[in-house]
Amino acid sequence: MTTAVYPGSFDPIHNGHLDLIQRACRLFDLIVAVAENAQKRPLFGLEERADMIRAATRHMPRVRVETFDGLTVEFAARCGATVIVKGLRGPADLEYEMRMAAVNAHLAPHLETVFLATRPEYAFLSSTLIREVAALGGSVRGLVPQAVERSLRDRLRNGG
Q1: From edge to edge, which strands make up the β-sheet containing 112-117?
Q2: pTM tops 0.90
């Protein structure tokens, strides 16, 4: 079976991410690659994010979760992956992800990028939006796994 990497910061993981993970692991052995991104100030630490994803995907035997820092193509090479999976919510994502796919193809011509269209019910979701709603006291129930909802509430209550 082909191994694919689904990279992202996942701060936090939401139901749109989980839908893509479920769909991608029907096609590939999937590594959810939680990225350390120096340009972002995450609400949750790298291992916290990875643990939340592990808990949410525990029932998916073809999924494993790893953390990384640096280039996605280098991480994929270390893992033996030949595919990068990316989700597309709309035209803005497509433009950005096409640029990233072109750079990745330049850096690692053996890697293919596969785009999965987000289901319409998740097209509006982003981790940034989830954090903003939660920080302002709004409900994120039904948008994130229950454990993530609790973690968000606890982190923000404690001055996260």
Answers
A1: 63-69, 29-36, 3-8, 83-88, 112-117
A2: yes
HSE-CB at 88 with a 13 A cutoff on CA atoms is 17
CA distance 83 to 81: 6
What is d(CA 117, CA 94) in angstroms, rounded to the nearest whole number? Answer: 10
Structure confidence at residue 40 as a pLDDT band (50, 70, 90) = confident
What's the pLDDT at 37? 77
Query: Helices 146-157 and 46-57 sit at what angle, rounded to 10 degrees?
Result: 150
Which tokens hold the place of 134?
A: 């939660």
H helix or E strand, kind and range, residue 159:
none
Residue range 5-31, pLDDT digits in tens = 999 999 999 999 999 999 999 999 999
Residues catalogued as catalytic: 17, 40, 89, 127
pLDDT cut 90: percent of the chain above it: 92
CB within 8 Å of 35: residues ≥ 6 apart:
7, 8, 9, 67, 68, 69, 72
